[in-house]
Design goal:
Elements (H helix, E strand, L loop, with lengths): L1 H43 L2 H4 L3 E8 L7 E2 L1 H14 E16 L4 E14 L2 E17 L2 E11 L4
Parallel strand pairs: 1-6
Antiparallel strand pairs: 1-2, 3-4, 4-5, 5-6
Length: 155
């Protein structure tokens, strides 16, 4: 009986540590996807690269738009408008938090943003906010299905 208990405990510890390692690996993949998405728009200004990380049915809420943006085409059109008017001086993500759901096939990611940019020749040196993204794992890759991008109050 003691042998069975010891074997069970060894298997339980092994399975638990493997699950934790796998969860950390999945979180790393999610974060790399988010960072690649952000590099595509903030540094490369590359719609072809950006669209690799976006689901066809994405929903986005972000400045300066008052209404939600529905679908990949409208999402990319919004970034094209940004590219036409803005130049990012720097963009930093800090304090990322990642939660996994549905057996590691869905993720919620939130992080703080610190950036400076010029928009129509008006310089914004100290823009701070938060991004909240939802991603799904489909066909071997992570895709954004929602993106909520908000600026902190200037108080």
């Amino acid at each position: 009986m003691k042998t069975y208990i010891i074997i069970f405990l060894v298997l339980l510890i092994g399975c638990t540590s493997k699950t934790v390692q796998n969860e950390e690996q999945v979180k790393k993949e999610v974060w790399e996807t988010v960072k690649s998405h952000n590099i595509a728009w903030s540094q490369l200004e590359d719609l072809t690269e950006l669209e690799k990380y976006v689901d066809e049915n994405i929903i986005s809420i972000s400045p300066p738009f008052k209404e939600p943006i529905y679908g990949k085409k409208a999402y990319l059109d919004g970034y094209q408008s940004w590219f036409d008017h803005a130049q990012v001086d720097y963009f930093r993500e800090t304090n990322p938090q990642i939660q996994l759901y549905l057996n590691g096939t869905m993720a919620m990611v939130t992080f703080e943003i610190d950036m400076a940019f010029d928009y129509d020749d008006q310089h914004t040196p100290d823009w701070k906010g938060r991004d909240v993204m939802t991603l799904k794992f489909e066909n071997g890759q992570w895709l954004l299905i929602s993106d909520l991008f908000v600026q902190y109050s200037k108080e």
